[in-house]
Amino acid sequence: MDSFSSPSSGSSQPSAEAFMEQLKTQLAQAYAEEFLETVRGKCFAKCITKPGTSLSGSESSCISRCVDRYIEATGIVSRALFSSPR
Question: Which InterPro entries match (predicted)?
Fold first, then answer.
């Protein structure tokens, strides 16, 4: 059961603060899922030339750089979204 199914204040409507917290949680989860999908799809396709039992040095470096770029980009977007005046 989610936080909106059982209101604690006796009201049938969630408070604005509860709604914003739920929204932030959902956005964070969506960003994490998108990040993992991006890394899995794009970085693997770009960096893994010969799938095998282990990564070569160049594949490992490529994956590391690719992940670092996406972490940086995700951080920039997150800061821009969540630092706006409320």
Answer: Tim10-like, Tim10-like_dom_sf
Average pLDDT across the chain, whole number: 82
Residue carrying the six token digits 């914003």: 20
Provide the residue type at 58 as one letter. Answer: S
Q: What is the pTM of this model?
A: 0.56
* DSSP letters spanning the chain: --TTTS-SSS-SS--HHHHHHHHHHHHHHHHHHHHHHHIIIIIHHHH-SS--SS--HHHHHHHHHHHHHHHHHHHHHHHHHHSS--
What are the domain boundaries of the chain? 55-85
Residue pLDDT, tens place only, 1-34: 555 555 555 555 678 889 999 999 998 899 789 8
